C-alpha cells in the first residue's frame, strides 16, 4: 500500500500542475474529460506514471474481505392472519419474542433494525441459551448424540439433558474461553469420556443399555464429508490446501429441475468442506451417506443403511481410483514382504495393526487371486490382487464406522 500511495502522490502532483493550465470551466470537468485537454507534454509524463501504478496494483496481494451486513429499510411488520400474506393484521414492533423475556423488553432504536440489540441480548452474561445450544451441538458431533438429544429443540417438547450440570459447565467454559470453538473442540476430544473404547460390557449394558451415562463410546458411522475425505487420504489423493473456490458458474445458476443439465463437477481432490452444495441436486456421495438437508435446520443427521451404499463401495469410480492408488503405493518397494505390506495397509486404513490370523488370511487371499489371474502378466496380476485386497478393507465396517 505504501508503494501505491507513493506512486499516486506523484500522479496527483503532476495533475495539480496540469489543472492550473486549464480554464475555470475546464477545471470543473470530470477527470476523464480533463485528461483530454492536458498539453502533450503533460500527457507524455502522465502515461508512464499511470502504467507503473497499475503494475504495482496488479502485483499486490488480494485484499482480505469478509461478508458484512448493512441496515436496510427499517420497518415493523404486520401479523399475517392465519399465515396469509394477503390478510394482514395489526403492526407489531420489532422486539425479542415475549416467551423469552416476558414484559422486560430491551429498547430497540426506532431508526435501526435492532439486529445488534438482538445479538447483544443473545450473548449477554445472563442469557445461557445460545452457549448451551452451541456446546450441545459440538458434543453431538463428536459423540453421535447430544447431552440434549433434540439439538433443534431446547423447549418443553424437546428432551431433557442427560447430564445437566455438564452442559452448564461446558457452556460457562465456552463463554470464558471467548466463545472459541477451537478450544471447545480441543476440550471435548481430550476428555477421558471421548477417549473411551466402544467395547461392550455386559454388566454396564444391563443397567444402562442406551449408554446414557456414557460408560463407553458410541459406535457411529463417519459423516459423508469425513467418509469421502478418509477415502482420499488413505489413497494419497487428498489435497489439503486451504481456501479457493470450486464454483465455476455464476450466482443463481445452481438451480435445477427435471429439464436442467447439471454441469457441476466433483472431481476436485480438495476436502469436502470446499465442494459445492446444490440444495436440490446433491453430490451423489453426500446423498448416499446422509448429508444434511441444506434447506432446513437439521441438528440430528439420520444414519441409514441401504444397499446403494454397499453398491457404491463396490463399484464407484472414486473407490476404484483410491484402491488402485493404494495398491500402486504399497507395491512401490519390491523388497517389502507381503506380511509387511498387509500390516502397513491395516494401519493406513483401520488405524491398527493386523492380527496374525488376519495376516494369514490376507496372504492366502492375495496369493490365490494372483494365481487365478494367470492370463495376465505377473506384475499386472499382482497389482489386481492387491487392489482387490485394498477394496475389501475400504468396504469393511471397521473403515466406515468410528469404534
Q: How are strands sequenced across the largest beta sheet?
A: 1-2
Shape: extended
SSE order: HHHHEEHHHHHHEHHHHHHHHE
- Which residues form runs of ≥5 with pLDDT under 50? none
Number of strands: 4
Cα-atom radius of gyration = 31 Å
Main sheet properties: 2 strands, antiparallel
Structural category is mainly alpha
Average per-residue pLDDT, rounded, comes to 88
**Approximate helicity band:** 40-55%
Number of helices: 18
What is the total number of structural domains?
A: 3
Helices and strands, with pairings:
Layout (H helix, E strand, L loop, with lengths): L1 H18 L4 H4 L3 H5 L4 H20 L18 E3 L7 E4 L6 H4 L13 H8 L6 H15 L20 H13 L4 H9 L12 H6 L12 E2 L2 H11 L49 H5 L18 H9 L1 H14 L7 H13 L5 H17 L5 H17 L2 H4 E2 L1
Antiparallel strand pairs: 1-2, 3-4
Helix pairs in contact: 1-4, 7-8, 7-9, 14-17, 15-16, 16-17
Structural descriptors:
about 400 residues, mainly alpha, 3 domains, two-stranded antiparallel sheet, 4 strands, extended
What would you note in describing this structure?
- The structure is a single chain.
- With 403 residues, the protein is mainly α.
- The protein folds into three domains: 2-59, no CATH class; 88-104 and 113-218, no CATH class; 219-403, no CATH class.
- Helices cover 48% and strands 3% of the residues.
- The chain has 18 helices and four strands.
- The protein has helices at 2-19, 24-27, 31-35, 40-59, 98-101, 115-122, 129-143, 164-176, 181-189, 202-207, 224-234, 284-288, 307-315, 317-330, 338-350, 356-372, 378-394, 397-400, and strands at 78-80, 88-91, 220-221, 401-402.
- It has a two-stranded antiparallel sheet.
- Helix 1 packs antiparallel against helix 4, helix 7 (129-143) packs across helix 9 (181-189) and helix 16 crosses helix 17 (378-394).
- It is extended.
- It starts with a helix and ends with a strand.
- The model has no long low-confidence stretch (mean pLDDT 88).
Amino acid at each position: 500500500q505504501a508503494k501505491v500511495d507513493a506512486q499516486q502522490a506523484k500522479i496527483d502532483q503532476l495533475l495539480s500542475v496540469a489543472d492550473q493550465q486549464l480554464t475555470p470551466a475546464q477545471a470543473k470537468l470530470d477527470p476523464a474529460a480533463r485528461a483530454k485537454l492536458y498539453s502533450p507534454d503533460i500527457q507524455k509524463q502522465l502515461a508512464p506514471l499511470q502504467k507503473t501504478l497499475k503494475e504495482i496494483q496488479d502485483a499486490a496481494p488480494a485484499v482480505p474481505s469478509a461478508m458484512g451486513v448493512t441496515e436496510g429499510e427499517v420497518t415493523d411488520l404486520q401479523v399475517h392472519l392465519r399465515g396469509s400474506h394477503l390478510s394482514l393484521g395489526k403492526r407489531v414492533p420489532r422486539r425479542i419474542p415475549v416467551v423469552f423475556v416476558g414484559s422486560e423488553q430491551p429498547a430497540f432504536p426506532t431508526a435501526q433494525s435492532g439486529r445488534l440489540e438482538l445479538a447483544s441480548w443473545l450473548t449477554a452474561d445472563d442469557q445461557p441459551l445460545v452457549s448451551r445450544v452451541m456446546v450441545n451441538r459440538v458434543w453431538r458431533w463428536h459423540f453421535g448424540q447430544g447431552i440434549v438429544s433434540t439439538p433443534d429443540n431446547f423447549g418443553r417438547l424437546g428432551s431433557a439433558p442427560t447430564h445437566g450440570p455438564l452442559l452448564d459447565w461446558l457452556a460457562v467454559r465456552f463463554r470464558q474461553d471467548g466463545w472459541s470453538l477451537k478450544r471447545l473442540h480441543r476440550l471435548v476430544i481430550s476428555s477421558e469420556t471421548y477417549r473411551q473404547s466402544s467395547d461392550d460390557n455386559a454388566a454396564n449394558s444391563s443397567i444402562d443399555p442406551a449408554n446414557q451415562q456414557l460408560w463407553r463410546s458410541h459406535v457411529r458411522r463417519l459423516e459423508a464429508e469425513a467418509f469421502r475425505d478418509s477415502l482420499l487420504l488413505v489413497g494419497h489423493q487428498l489435497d489439503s490446501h486451504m481456501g479457493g473456490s470450486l464454483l465455476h458458474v455464476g450466482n443463481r445458476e445452481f438451480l435445477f429441475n427435471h429439464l436442467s443439465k447439471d454441469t457441476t463437477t466433483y472431481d476436485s481432490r480438495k476436502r469436502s468442506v470446499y465442494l459445492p452444495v446444490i440444495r436440490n441436486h446433491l453430490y451423489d456421495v453426500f446423498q448416499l451417506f446422509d448429508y444434511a438437508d441444506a434447506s432446513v435446520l437439521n441438528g440430528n443427521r439420520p444414519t441409514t443403511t441401504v444397499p446403494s451404499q454397499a453398491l457404491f463401495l463396490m463399484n464407484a469410480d472414486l473407490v476404484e481410483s483410491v484402491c488402485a492408488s493404494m495398491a500402486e503405493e504399497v507395491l512401490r518397494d519390491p523388497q517389502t514382504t507381503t506380511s509387511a505390506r498387509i500390516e502397513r495397509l491395516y494401519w493406513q486404513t483401520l488405524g491398527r495393526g493386523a492380527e496374525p490370523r488376519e495376516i494369514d488370511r490376507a496372504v492366502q487371499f492375495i496369493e490365490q487371486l494372483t494365481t487365478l489371474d494367470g492370463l495376465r502378466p505377473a506384475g499386472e496380476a499382482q497389482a489386481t490382487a492387491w487392489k482387490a485386497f485394498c477394496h475389501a478393507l475400504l468396504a469393511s465396517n471397521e473403515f466406515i464406522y468410528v469404534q
